[in-house]
Amino acid sequence: MPRRNDLHKILLIGSGPIVIGQAAEFDYSGTQAARVLMQEGYEVVLVNSNPATIMTDPEVATTTYVEPLDPRTVTRIIERERPDALVATLGGQTALNLAKRLHEDGVLERFGVELIGAKIDAIERGEDRDLFRATMQAAGLRVPRSAIAHTLAEARAAVAEIGLPVIIRPAFTLGGAGGGVLRDMAQFDAVIGRGLEASPISQILIDESVLGWGEFELEVMRDSTDNVVIVCAIENIDPMGVHTGDSVCVAPQQTLPDHLYQRLRDQAITVIRAIGVETGGSNVQFAVNPATEEIMVIEMNPRVSRSSALASKATGFPIAKIAARLAVGYTLQEITNDITRATPASFEPAIDYCVVKWPRFAFEKFPGAEQELTTHMKSVGEAMAIGRTFRQAFAKALRSRELDAAVSFPSDDEQLLELVAAPGAERFDHLLEALRRGHSVAALEALTQINPWFLRELEALVRDPDAVFAGQRTFKSVDTCAAEFAAQTPYFYSAWERPRPAGPDGRPLAAGEVTRGSRPSVVILGSGPNRIGQGIEFDYCCVHAAQTVRESGRDAVMINCNPETVSTDYDTSDRLYFEPLTLPDVLGVCEIERPEGVILQFGGQTPLKLAAGLRDAGIPILGTTTDAIDLAEDRARFGRLLDELGYRAPPYAAVATPEEALERAPEVGFPLLVRPSYVLGGRAMEIVYSVDGLRDYLRRVGVIGAAGADGGPRIYLDRFLEDSVEVDVDALCDGERVWIAGIMQHVEEAGIHSGDSACVLPPHSLGDEMLEQIREQAAGIARALGVVGLLNVQFAIHAGSGLHVIEANPRASRTVPFVSKAIGLPVAKLACRLMLGTKLDELDLPDEVATGHVCVKEAVLPFDRFAGTDALLGPEMRSTGEVMGIARDFPTAFAKAQAAAGARLPRSGTVFVSVADRDKSAATAIATQIHDMGFELLATSGTAKALARMGIPARRVNKLSEGSPHVVEAIGRGEVDLVINTPVGTGARSDGYEIRAAAVAHRIPCITTMSGAIAAIRAIAAATHGEPEVISLQELYAQPRAGL
Amino acid sequence: MSGEAYVLLEDGARFDGTACGADTHAVGEVVFTTSMSGYQEAMSDPSYAGQLIAFTYPQMGNYGVSARAMESDRAHARAAIMRAAVDYDDAPNAQGGWLTWLKAQGVAAITDLDTRALVRHIRDAGAMRGGVFPATVAEAEARALLEREPPMAGRDLAREVTPPTPRQVAASGSESPVHVAMIDTGVKRSIVEQLTQRGVELTLYPCTVSAETLLAAGPDAIFLANGPGDPAALGYVVDTVRGLVGRKPVYGICLGHQLLCRALGLQTYKLPFGHHGANHPVKDLASGRTEITSQNHGFAVLGPDGQGRIDGDQPVRWETDFGAAQLSHVNLYDRTVEGLALLDVQGATIQYHPEAGPGPHDSLYLFDRFVDEIRSSR
Q1: All domains of chain B, ordered by start, with CATH?
Q2: Angle of the A635-645 helix axis to the A768-785 helix axis, nearest 10
Q3: pLDDT (tens digit, 9 = 90+) per residue, A357-371?
Q4: From the candidates A355, A498, A505, A507, which should be mutated to test the interface with B, based on the most B CB atoms within 10 A?
Q5: For the domain with range A651-717, which CATH number is right: 3.30.1490.20, 2.40.37.10, 3.40.50.150, 2.40.50.1070?
Q6: Angle CA(A100)–CA(A106)–CA(A111) in degrees, nearest 5?
Q7: Looking at this predicted complex, what is its ipTM?
Q8: Which residues in chain B are closer than 8 Å to A226, comparing Cβ atoms?
């Protein structure tokens, strides 16, 4: 069946901010879908609140809304745009849930919007546990014994019947949030309670445990004529019990004999038909008992998922792209395989290599959090590696993770084996160490229930790590067909092979498959696995760099190892090398590419770490020189530079040892911002107020400091400027001239990591004189460093002592996508042009851009994933993603950003206020406003008294320590709609900690800074004027622009 | 044995690896299979007689070997050419290690070899004779051994795998049995099972059986099995089949399909490197559905216009010595003929392997179709 001509305008919903369980893979799938639909001649209306996405680039869709992904906003967009159809299967759980709400609210029917891809009944059959189970049983498939519970009492009865252990899965959550394993009744209230809480419909599934069974996922595609293909079978090396997002996985499956695999395949096909996904991709998860060969269906996602992104990258079969075509009527046979360009998409990829995926964790950012891996996903990113053999792929994946510090092992074997037995972030490191120490495969199998094939392969890897990479490095292509047909799409991985296969005439036969044309190539280094501090923003910049390099008539060559991203879509560059970002791997690519240059500025800290090595190997580095990078990174050198320029900076010291730090601290002056050298995202950064505090810090993070630079300074001490306003500047420089792309004022005061702080562009409360000074100093630094490309400068404006330079980074910053979206100019692309030799004069840029709108960026934090950690902002970055709010005024933009971040501010109800003494006077001002807007105020004794003195009525509630009925209970009962709580104590069990934890658990907006509270109150006030209007980026950019 | 070894092709291309099978060399036609599982099924498939199998999937032996994976009573392929083979025997339900089994079967095997480079070479140059040799065999000697090996085209390998005497297999279904006589040119156990499960009582005959003998046995239908070699070299079987078409319903799979087509007067030809794998899409022109199929053949049937490719999804027709035949299935990869329905006499053919073993089960319906037709024609 060909293209549907009855549809003209299609609404595509993205997945919003990057959160655990929903990351860049949905930018990859959404971007592919939008492009396909545009190519097919449809008008595409796209909604996504995440500015750091390629899909929200204005040229990707006809109309692009960077607006909150909530039913109210999307309804307004539907009302305004009147699309014929909605595709909800490419934007993760967020889009699926939204579509479901829009259907339930009658919006889709009212405006005649057809849901294409998966219909509402298929979505419900796939997502509602009860319906799913019934559907599977009707189709003759086995599912674990199971019960649904809505209350603790129902759950108790169900557990009694099923027997322990049981697995808990809440309905309608992403990444398995709120799920867990209940092994003993002592944990009953905690585990069941958390599950019920996490489900928006208070429904949990209690499953018979299949812990220890093999876990397999099949990626299935179906078209409107009921043709079904399996794109990939992924095997989790971790047996059942660990969320697939947290598991080390391999593709294709390795351990099932053909007859058993074919049964899985048959069942996957039965599942997609029974659920009734009309067209598109689905993911079906199975548990297989390898001894008895019993198979159980665990779940299915009636949409494109994280696993389908992995499957696409692992096989070269672009699931999202094909799903989009299927949704508008095409059949699999009518779609051509991109890679062979000669065969149809109605086939199953044949793989002749192995793919291993590793999750990337960030537990170090969340002290106190439960670290055991369960069915509740906790990883923040992933790295994928392709090798000719499993051992090659596994070893490459190991080095793709880019761990900050080497894993340390207990010397005691018993302790080591305990770590092997309990699934944790470093389980496989511990497993390898156990093998190194001679523990047997049989013993480790008994301990882990990992299939012995994997253990034996790992044993071989441990026994002779060099053998894995013996022979010669060749580059082979990912071609979907195991070389049966000639591949047209240049997607490569390195493989180590026996040297010199000989050709017919005795001449060596080419083992490698890279063919280069005559165009010079430019290598772009990606940012590796997503982690906190280095996420999708950098991938966004890398994609823009590739686009710019291609436009310049050169071949763009991408190196990256993150399967979630747009940069690892083979359509993005001329040649994609799916490789770890280590020096030897990158040099391996350079050896055959002989690039004109390498671009390091866009991939965050990852490529910068390779700068010196690449330079020493004689590889030309485009843009800012490695020396300039070092000049900016080396605090001593940079400090001297600022002195020369006459710019003020907080006093600092760069020291080599903890002893030296203690000695120099008093001369720098407290409070101090302390951090180890070369860090991103404020890793291990803290503010200390005294020598004792510093000593405590050094004791705790000393290990990390020791992993720092070779012989150089290991610890930085900076005077922390209390009560100052932070400002971020992104600028372009061609070595001579400087262009300021954007000045952003942070909403939270200094001391909150810039990545976690909301910011506003243009600045909402800085005078012209200050702005001029900021511009002047940013430009001065850019010229002094000799920046060619991007520069980010962070300033602090101290109430008393004025403007200070905090740091400068001569590379793409996290804010580049936000600035680009705000000003309507592609800043990373412009930077890339400068790096390729264009001068600023030639770019014809306006002096500075203002759209007449205010843009607010807000961070999204994963506290709900890490029970046990304090939900507080600080100098260490902990956000996973960001959203953008665009409006005519700051309060409205801020409100939109809050709503997009999932913390929709209340319009009425009760506000709980509890602030530190230093904030009491500011709090009374806010409280007055809150009261005037008709909210009820709830406060603990101290704050209540302070308010009473000002004549503001507040209901007093007990602190936790004062006993029941206390504030935490009130939050638990849903009596509080907004929490304003600035920290007094941060330790576990402190009142503030419990209040914040309760707010996070009950999804109540929780504001922990006074400046944040002020902005929120202004936003609430603005919202009383009615629902904010929605505006598309295309409309925004069409408005007349004025100089700032 | 685990010394150095190499693969030498008749065009002189050489690929080095490590010996991992029986202590012998092997020569024959080198083909590759893209199937990612089912290595033991492939090695024991009689259709691979005379061939050396290069496995494109690199990890071989992962789940060991077991009796249930045998497609016949022994290995028929002459060698296994692999990238990373293991001999672990502790996989759940494994009855032994893969390399131990290869050795016990007397099959040569080589691992650590750049199979992708080999496969790309065969893809471009075509399937050809080649051998697996221990490094102790000098290249000149290996070359001489290769030259002594007859090429695949024109080769009757069915005689090497056919049973010496007829053999009966009882029906296992509950329905009243139908009697089918099979010309066993090297049938796979999976085909026998699919038929007997559907109530077929099967008599397997040596491929030299005459039409008279078969007719005298009074079967409800004739089934032509899969098997190795060039259908053009099996003139005696084709003659037998010509004596059966029109008198009994005749069905054929793989080599059986080619033999039936030749009996109808159609031509077969050698594909450049054959189809061996488990992922080829084939369209059933009657239902319009695409099946993912198990494939293992080096020869194919020419279309009505004398070309290998069938353009379009129309059920084109051949005028044959036995009336009209119609294309029932077409390969969506290279548009080759995958099945015919006979319109004027009862019978049908399928080029690929609906019985799977190894491979997907999408095409099992064909056995229902065939057996239902036989049942209703009684």
Answers
A1: 4-148 (3.50.30.20), 158-377 (3.40.50.880)
A2: 120
A3: 999 998 888 877 888
A4: A498
A5: 3.30.1490.20
A6: 105
A7: 0.97
A8: 289
